[in-house]
Amino acid sequence: MVQAIGIDIGGTGIKGGLVDTDTGEMRSDRIKVDTPAGGEPDDIVRVVTQILGELGDAGAEADAPVGVCFPAVVQNGRTMSAANVSKKWIDLAAEQLFEGSLHRDITFVNDADAAGYAESEFGAAKDHDGLVLMTTLGTGIGSAIIYRNLLVPNAELGHLDIGDRHDIEKYASNAAREREGMSWKHWAKLLQVYYETLERLFTPDLIIVGGGVSKHAEEFLPLLDLRTPIVPAALRNNAGILGAAALAAHGSGARPTQGADHLVRATNETAPTVAR
Q: What are the structural domains, with CATH classification, of the chain?
């Protein structure tokens, strides 16, 4: 059994847990702490340090691999964007910041990529050979693209401009639903426009919907009328933790490609193309 720690940093909460990366099972209770107001780098690092300490007390070995996922484009260990956190993260050497503060090596990846990787390893996309789009509906909208078990990093499909709506996550995220007091029916109309656009652009074989709101999937997914099968994430809100841990345990995803690595090439050293 290979165990690793996964940390999932979001705009409203930071979650962590110890994971059996062979099975995708949590080996500890999930620890969750509110994201500090403003999402400043030093404040978030402090919370992650706190969570790692609690996981150590829960039995995590000191040399267990650590994966951290974050709501930003991550390239060569730098956060190139900042969604729902401080703008100080833009072009920040984030991986270096965490490693210096935690005094250990980490694997640092985009949060939706971690969730998508987890679903391909352990969840709704496991053994699916077609084109899969994973979306996470939360504070924003995250996305991951998986094709024939290859993960394409840093897809930012939540920031599309659709019609007169600039940056669709401002209108169609779960946070927007809660902020505007939308009914499930009203929200589903916005999601219909969003997912129709993804269908038109990518012609996927499967769409997976994750994020905390996926536990209420029966309230809104049946209201959508799409050509593509659309299902809730099997791993629900633990997907980021599981994916970050699995990527860390697998050496940042450097795994055999079974001859298919010519299909997709990643340029991100911290979240490269992944194949099973």
A: 3-113+239-249 (3.30.420.40), 126-237 (3.30.420.40)
